[in-house]
Amino acid sequence: MSHPIPIPLTDRFGRVHTDLRVSLTDRCNLRCTYCMPAEGLPWLPADDLLSRAETTRLVRIAVDHLGIRTVRLTGGEPLLRPDLTALIADLAGLDRAPELSLTTNGIRLARLAPALRAAGLRRVNVSLDTLRPERFALLTRRDRIEDVFEGLRAAHAAGLAPVKINAVPVRGVNDDEIVPMLEWAIEHGYRLRFIEQMPLDAQGAWDRDLMVTADEVLARLAARFTLVPVPREGASAPAEEWYVDGTAATVGVIASVTRPFCGACDRVRLTADGQLRTCLFARDESDLRALLRSDADDAAIAAAWRIALLGKGAGHGIGTPEFVRPDRPMSAIGG
Fold first, then answer.
1. Does residue 126 lie within any of the structural domains?
2. In terms of C-beta density within 10 A (0-12 exposed, 13-18 middle, 19 or more buried), how is residue 8 classed?
3. Is 1 contained in some domain?
4. Most Cβ neighbours (<10 Å): which of 111, 216, 223, 235?
5. Which position has the higher pLDDT, 216 or 42?
6. What CATH number is associated with residue 305?
7. What is the pLDDT of residue 332?
8. What's the confidence (pLDDT) of residue 245?
9. Number of folded domains that form the chain
10. pLDDT at 301
11. 328 part of a folded domain
């Protein structure tokens, strides 16, 4: 079967987009204090969610027509999708199959890791902000940290490597674990990345004064370790990374707020209900689900995708007077 030669997905600033984040659900089995209220949020109706076939078709259009090369599956918590393994097999079976990775809280990973790897998943990122069981229970409102540890071990054993850990340090909450978390990651062979907290919580309670900056993280790590900069893989790579001298480990910092990488951003986002977002902090969305369900052909959907990218802003604008938080919280946008 012949395919068109993909035409790069470019915005008006000349940024070429090759990375697609696909949210599979807005639901989650944790209630993290910095993400959503204890009672949860109004979930999207089931009929509004993209089906497995619809998701596969949009990804196929993205890789065949638009030059997307990497796809990260997110949520909410993507391991809650009952058809996840089948969906991954569908995406891995595309003629121009993208590199597939997944971001998860790890709660259900122990049971699913072998099947996900067999279906075609290559890597996982696990969100984990503390190593302390009592603190995990307070932060997530669930006593499930041992499930996460078990999931990490299973992912490593299944070959979903490197297993990456995403940690968000918050002042006075878990910032005393910055050094211990890296010591733990080195011991277990995981790749740790610290991420600056962003204003994407459903409660709107983000406080910049509580955000631990990348410079603070590095200063604390440098007091314990010798860090050697890793050459950047590309200008669009969000994480700045360092070798930890004397070990085989690296550690990364994603300074989304204080050192944004918007000028080289190469990613677009698809929500679980089929809305295309050009940025985490975008105020507008483009409805690809409506095109799918009105029998639009691939060319029309690809054209709509290109038009949406022409509206992408130069940057997220956090800290400027013009900045306005997006209407959707992170759990509904997709991490």
1. yes
2. exposed
3. no
4. 216
5. 216
6. 3.20.20.70
7. 63
8. 96
9. 1
10. 98
11. yes
Which is nearest to 79 in space by CA: 90, 87, 69, 71? Answer: 87
Residue 112 lies in a domain: yes
Separation of alpha carbons 160 and 82, rounded Å: 20
Tracing tokens 């949020």 back to the chain, one arrives at 41
| Kind plus residue range of the DSSP H or E element containing 42 | none
26 pLDDT above the threshold of 80: yes
- 99-104/16-17 β-pairing: unpaired
Quote the tokens at residue 303: 């054209």
238-271: pLDDT as tens digits:
789 999 999 999 999 998 888 877 888 899 999 9
Q: Among residues of the chain, what percentage have pLDDT more than 90?
A: 72
**Residue 115: pLDDT band with limits 50, 70, 90:** very high
Determine the Cα–Cα distance for residues 160 and 189; give it in Å rounded to an integer: 12
pLDDT at 5 over 90: no
Cα distance between residue 58 and residue 55, in whole Å = 5
Around Cβ 203, how many Cβ atoms within 10 Å?
Answer: 11
Residue 71 vs residues 16, 118, 154, 211, 303: alpha-carbon distances, Å: 15, 17, 22, 29, 20
Q: Which residue has the higher pLDDT, 38 or 9?
A: 9
First-residue to last-residue Cα distance in the chain? 34
Domain that holds residue 268: 9-333
Residues in Cβ contact with 234 at an 8 Å cutoff, skipping those fewer than 6 apart: 264
In SS3 terms, 143-210 reads as CCHHHHHHHHHHHHHHCCCCCEEEECCECCCCHHHHHHHHHHHHHHCCEEEEECCCCCCCCCCCCHHH
